[in-house]
Design a protein that fits this description.
mainly alpha
């Protein structure tokens, strides 16, 4: 389940998994590998939606996935903010 704390961790490392993994070797990870890659995929998917290149059916699939995987509306909104932060600072 994605939480605001996990979003902040992902943001701290700007989506760079290796940096997170290396700095947390031997420690209990607060965000699982599966959650990390879920966030990476959601950031990419939201980018497509925000730029108008995704079908409505795809948009619905992603919003449903977000609703299912976020612990609150605040976390849901933070994922959208995260996408802007990642992609506006580091354009594709």
């Amino acid at each position: 389940m994605l939480t605001s704390e996990k979003i902040e961790i992902y943001k701290k490392y700007k989506g760079y998994y290796d940096g997170y993994d290396i700095q947390n070797k031997g420690k209990e990870k607060l965000i699982s590998d599966d959650e990390w890659f879920l966030l990476s995929n959601l950031v990419q998917d939201i980018y497509l939606i925000r730029n108008g290149v995704a079908a409505k059916s795809f948009e619905k699939k992603i919003t449903d996935e977000l609703t299912k995987n976020c612990d609150s509306k605040i976390t849901y909104d933070l994922v959208f903010e995260l996408e802007k932060y990642i992609n506006e600072e580091n354009p594709i």
